[in-house]
Amino acid sequence: MSVTDPGLALAVVGWSGSGKTTLLEFLVGQLAARGLRVNVLKHSHHDILLEPPHKDSARLRMAGAAEVMIASPYRYAIMRELRGEQEPSLREQLARLAPADLTLVEGYKWEPLPKLEVFRPALGRPSLYQDDPLVAAVASDVAAPAGLRPGLRWLDLNAPEEVLAWLSDWMMTNPKVSLNQSVNGG
């Protein structure tokens, strides 16, 4: 595993309010408890506010700094102002992460990555799996519809252990689906 290819990746996709973050929190906690290193890259369509505007780091950023790193004995964060630049690609963002056993990507549903869809029909939004052949499994709060395409797994969203078991199996059977290969369409 190299810095340019930090490991296996799976996008967790679905509409807002479907339960992606709750499921991810469970999966990350369980995998980390097993000793696996798990990265998460979360996409947001909104402005990201990580600090109050009166704090030194925010003031320096607003003064014109291109990047500001906040460091402590507990964590560090780098904030980069795009100032009109195009949003970095998924590949560029993934390259910033340290190597891991698995990187879970929340969002980026348009990217060519293997996907786990979190689908709640009650939200009134369309499913993604019907139009995206890269959706490998669907975690839903309803029973599987008839006529699923071969190979697509339907999981009970209300039984997160079932989703974890599927993910563990998926990780073992898909070691060739790396971040670099996925983002490059390989």
- Would you tell me the overall average pLDDT? 86
Large-scale geometry: elongated
Biggest β-sheet, characterized?
A: 6 strands, parallel
Strand order of the largest sheet: 2-5-1-6-7-8
Number of helices: 5
Helical content class: 25-40%
Per DSSP E runs of 2 or more residues, the count of β-strands stands at 8
Strand content: 15-25%
What is the CA-atom radius of gyration, in angstroms?
18 Å
Low-confidence stretches: 1-6, 181-186
SS-based class = alpha/beta
Order of helices and strands: EHEHEEHEEEEHH
Domain Molybdopterin-guanine dinucleotide biosynthesis protein B (MobB): 10-141
Organism: Massilia haematophila
Pfam family, one: MobB
Protein name: Molybdopterin-guanine dinucleotide biosynthesis protein B
